[in-house]
Structures are given as structure tokens and as C-alpha cells.
Design brief:
4 helices, mainly alpha, flat, about 90 residues
Length: about 90
């Protein structure tokens, strides 16, 4: 019984990051990956590990399902530096 509850919990988590990835793609189109990375950086800087992992998974999902999404490592580094400067 506990296994079934755990499996359903994991599925709910997966559905959440998949839905957030689809929403970002609709809202941000090409910049959806960067927005997910920005949100992950904010969560990490705030010390919220659960939200950090969530947005990191969202970014990965955006990269997987959105071929039009721009994904440049230097841009991600710039986003992280910007968030650190902001002191979120």
C-alpha cells in the first residue's frame, strides 16, 4: 500500500514539472529554458532545495520537448550571475 502511495506521489511531482514546462513554452517560447533556469537559480539562492530541483527538471523538460528553445551555457551563467547580484 505504501508503495502505491509513493508511486502516485512521484507521478504527481512529475506531472507538475511537465505541466510547468509546457506553460513556460507557451508563455516564453524561445526563452522558456532560460526562464526555468532563472527560477531554479532563485530557488537555490533562497535555499529552497525542493523548488530548485523542480525548476531544474522543468528546464530539462523544456530542452527535451521544445526544439525552438534556446539553450546556451554562457547565457545560463549570465542568468546565474544576474540572480546572485540581485541577491534574491
Amino acid at each position: 500500500m505504501f508503495t502505491a502511495i509513493r508511486v502516485e506521489h512521484r507521478r504527481a511531482i512529475r506531472r507538475r514539472w511537465q505541466a510547468d514546462a509546457r506553460r513556460l513554452i507557451l508563455a516564453e517560447e524561445v526563452n522558456a529554458y532560460y526562464e526555468a533556469q532563472r527560477r531554479a537559480a532563485r530557488a537555490r539562492l533562497q535555499g529552497d532545495a525542493g523548488e530548485f530541483y523542480h525548476w531544474a527538471k522543468v528546464a530539462a523538460e523544456v530542452g527535451r520537448i521544445a526544439p525552438q528553445a534556446a539553450m546556451d551555457t554562457d547565457a545560463v551563467r549570465a542568468i546565474l550571475a544576474e540572480e546572485e547580484r540581485r541577491g534574491t
